[in-house]
From TrEMBL:
Alphabetical list of InterPro entries matching this protein: BFN_sf (IPR036104), Bi_nuclease_dom (IPR003729)
Name assigned to this protein: BFN domain-containing protein
Residue intervals of the BFN domain: 5-137
Gene3D superfamilies: Bifunctional nuclease domain (3.10.690.10)
């Protein structure tokens, strides 16, 4: 992999309004603040959510099956790389470690992230992708002192403070 990548953490999945779209959120690990939000299908949203929550299902889901197949072949998923953004579509690769070699497999990004959640694999994003589609988390724009002051206010305020005289 010759292109520069940035390590990201899969922070969660959510429903985004309007239209109740499903998204997965990634946050930069080394210099927190840059985020990447990717729209995904409901099936992948549920698969990622279940994996992040450690929820077991009575029967294996598709991504559980694929994890079992990979492990049965003596391999493990070490890294997921989001390599490209083209025409609003993200492209990804799975880097499978067999002990002797690394095998690269193309994947839909949503499937790659669902597997990353199951394997606790590293997630990398191409710097070019992050520059094109990443954004700063607005929560990181607030200095800690402002946040601490607001928390103190919330902890000490009572409904009586808002009564009219």
């Amino acid at each position: 992999m010759s292109e520069t990548t940035v390590k990201m953490q899969l922070t969660g999945v959510r429903r985004e309004n309007p239209g109740d779209a499903f998204v997965v959120d990634l946050r930069e690990v080394e210099a927190p603040g840059r985020m990447l939000t990717i729209f995904i299908g409901v099936g992948e949203w549920q698969a990622i959510r279940f994996a992040l929550e450690g929820r077991d299902t009575s029967r294996p889901l598709t991504h559980d099956l694929l994890k079992s197949v990979i492990e049965s072949l003596g391999a493990s998923l070490e890294t997921v790389v989001i390599t490209e953004l083209r025409d609003e579509v993200y492209f990804a690769e799975l880097l499978l470690n067999t002990g002797d070699t690394t095998i690269t497999v193309e994947s839909r990004t949503s499937d790659a992230l669902a597997l990353a959640a199951r394997f606790d694999a590293t997630v990398l994003v191409s710097s070019k992708v992050l520059e094109a589609a990443g954004y700063r988390d607005s929560d990181d724009d607030q200095p800690e002192s402002v946040i601490a002051e607001f928390r103190e206010f919330i902890d000490t305020v009572s409904p009586d403070d808002f009564e009219e005289s």
